[in-house]
Amino acid sequence: MAAGVSGGLRYEDRRDVGLLFSGVGGGASAVVVTTNVFKSAPLLVTKETLETGDVRALVVNSGIANAATGRQGVEDAYRMQALAAETLGLEPGEVAVASTGVIGEQLPMGHVEAGIRDAAASLSRDGGAFAEAILTTDTRTKEAVAAVEIGGEIVTVGGVAKGSGMIHPNMATMLAFLTTDAAVEKHCLQSVLAEVTARTFNRVSVDGDTSPNDMVLLMANGAAGNETLTQSSGDLAAFEGAVEAVMRELAKEIARDGEGATKLIEVTVEGAESEEKAATLARAVVGSSLVKAAVYGEDANWGRVLNAMGYSGASFVPEEVELYFGPIKVFADGEPVEHDAEEANATLAGDEVTVTARLKEGEGSATVWGCDLTEEYVRINGSYRT
Amino acid sequence: MAAGVSGGLRYEDRRDVGLLFSGVGGGASAVVVTTNVFKSAPLLVTKETLETGDVRALVVNSGIANAATGRQGVEDAYRMQALAAETLGLEPGEVAVASTGVIGEQLPMGHVEAGIRDAAASLSRDGGAFAEAILTTDTRTKEAVAAVEIGGEIVTVGGVAKGSGMIHPNMATMLAFLTTDAAVEKHCLQSVLAEVTARTFNRVSVDGDTSPNDMVLLMANGAAGNETLTQSSGDLAAFEGAVEAVMRELAKEIARDGEGATKLIEVTVEGAESEEKAATLARAVVGSSLVKAAVYGEDANWGRVLNAMGYSGASFVPEEVELYFGPIKVFADGEPVEHDAEEANATLAGDEVTVTARLKEGEGSATVWGCDLTEEYVRINGSYRT
């Protein structure tokens, strides 16, 4: 069950407190958090909570990140956890906590408390209000769902996310919360989440900045009644596939809705020595301000793509690279391939752009997602915190 | 002596071919080139030339980068070298070659040849025309000079550079050419250039992209008559200081004149475990699109600075960081320091902005330079190649 209400944490009248709650206990949970040296208070609390047990509920607020808030911030994150537990009839250790918003301000705990009580009273099977409550500069909600049969039972995986700038001054962060009715052993769940995160959320770049609040949480309550999945289950791959489908869709939605973005950019590197190397090369391309600006300008500027690969830190033989904008080959054998420049530019005209680089090293391939760089990005991020 | 002329390589009537020439031979020379896997043809030729001997002249063109041009490009770079040598009465191995401009187009060798002959005929002691001939999207020339006494002789170091976007679609690259009348042993000269480059040009970031054409060349003809400097000379530090003064000034000018930039940003990290770690942290800050956009908006957004340090890859204790905008302390002991937000923003109002982070680890410190991110950057780089 989910809820999203306005607790009044923001100057606007927007939903800013959310709850997720499983009526069924005894399940497993897993979390992956930011690698930033700066970690927000709720993230530290959630990480600690998951280390010693499992959660069946989540409380989240938007508007204030509760990051760089010192000891008071940690106390407030524990207080959010305790308040949510109390209203839901749970132990504090059964509740995860997350925040997103402006850094360096303390939470107005009166508003947070009122929001939590309102949210608990409005829990329903509709996740729409929750999906709204976690947004910051996002322009739309992000939800995805997948179902798969496991041992004769239909198992469902649902997810909600927010993104926008990886960290915005007013508001921060990538957050994703997934729930499933599958029964999964805890360590197995953690390993699925970590692996799928590496192939999905860790391959999204809006502006290269990661925030102190980034968190992906997966709660599995086991209500589907399947035999509990473990690392050795034959059905584990099917479950992982469903989780990946949901997280990939959310990841792409985050890229597409990056601050000021007008286009989703999908960069694939194939034929690399390893998947890791392919990902390094692809990330450099999608992270290049010059590539992003060229895509915005619908200019099939292959020189910038090659250039970004060149400074990625990965070694390769330039003469062995083939480069494509959409289906059009633009570079091979160390030289430009003759092509119709207007046709190449036309591959950038839509709202989804694909760039592919083929190497001749091996079987490693990776796809990453990003967005174009626009004047609007500068306006959003150059304007004073309000 | 120097010259800069219009050879007609560009659609506009601009100077685009330059020569530097020392009437005195027998000196030493040193070069540092891009770390990009993609290297332009002239850069490969110059590197090879310097490995087997010393140059006393340089030929350079702007407009076309002669990068990603295959075998033809390498032949043309050798041809430029041979043509310049012929007109100056030198051996080809005495001439360095450089190019900057659009990637993936072949040089119009007729124009290049005409330009070289014109330039050779107009050599003079005035470097102004040469400084113009190497510009691409730069808005102004960049020149610097320093003098120092070495063993009773006055030694002069002069330099000219171009920058702008680290690589622009039409035109690319950071180039810097230094000349001195000091007598310096070749290996000693190379080591001075490499060390000073690490502290100056390698601490400039316009947009994080390095180009296939980046090159810093230093020619020392020995005309000052000082006793030849070697690694064990007591005066070497004084010479290195003069080289560093020139290169630091050029580096700052490159940052200040970054594409679309309105402000120079100087980020210093002090008290780090090592100089390298300080540089890593400072580079992450000055390279962050969010920090750059905030500076443009004159918003003293310290959260973004901390955040960039946090994802830099360097480990440190967040609670031990003190952060300053200009002289104003904004963060310490893991929490915001109360300050007048308008005063903090006022430190961003001029055209030079300083941000300082103090750690409590050791004596390592480093300063890096960058520029703000503006709508104009996006406009310049989003527009189609013309």
TrEMBL record, chains A, B:
Substrate binds at residues 136, 162, 173, 259, 381, 386. It comes from the Bacteria. It catalyses: L-glutamate + acetyl-CoA = N-acetyl-L-glutamate + CoA + H(+); N(2)-acetyl-L-ornithine + L-glutamate = N-acetyl-L-glutamate + L-ornithine. The record marks 172-173 as: Cleavage. Signal peptide: none annotated. Keywords: Acyltransferase, Amino-acid biosynthesis, Arginine biosynthesis, Autocatalytic cleavage, Cytoplasm, Multifunctional enzyme, Transferase. Coiled coil: none annotated. Its main location: cytoplasm. It is found in: Cytoplasm. Pathway: Amino-acid biosynthesis; L-arginine biosynthesis; N(2)-acetyl-L-ornithine from L-glutamate: step 1/4; Amino-acid biosynthesis; L-arginine biosynthesis; L-ornithine and N-acetyl-L-glutamate from L-glutamate and N(2)-acetyl-L-ornithine (cyclic): step 1/1. The record marks 100-101 as: Involved in the stabilization of negative charge on the oxyanion by the formation of the oxyanion hole. Heterotetramer of two alpha and two beta chains. Belongs to the ArgJ family. Catalyzes two activities which are involved in the cyclic version of arginine biosynthesis: the synthesis of N-acetylglutamate from glutamate and acetyl-CoA as the acetyl donor, and of ornithine by transacetylation between N(2)-acetylornithine and glutamate. Its EC number is 2.3.1.35, 2.3.1.1. It comes from uncultured Rubrobacteraceae bacterium. Transmembrane segments: none annotated. GO terms for cellular component: cytoplasm. One of its GO terms (biological process) is ornithine biosynthetic process. One of its GO terms (molecular function) is L-glutamate N-acetyltransferase activity, acting on acetyl-L-ornithine as donor. The active site is at 173 (nucleophile). PANTHER family: ARGININE BIOSYNTHESIS BIFUNCTIONAL PROTEIN ARGJ (PTHR23100), ARGININE BIOSYNTHESIS BIFUNCTIONAL PROTEIN ARGJ, MITOCHONDRIAL (PTHR23100:SF0). This is Arginine biosynthesis bifunctional protein ArgJ. It is an enzyme of class 2 (transferase). Pfam families: ArgJ. The lineage of its organism: Bacteria, Bacillati, Actinomycetota, Rubrobacteria, Rubrobacterales. InterPro entries: Arg_biosynth_ArgJ, ArgJ-like_dom_sf, ArgJ_beta_C.
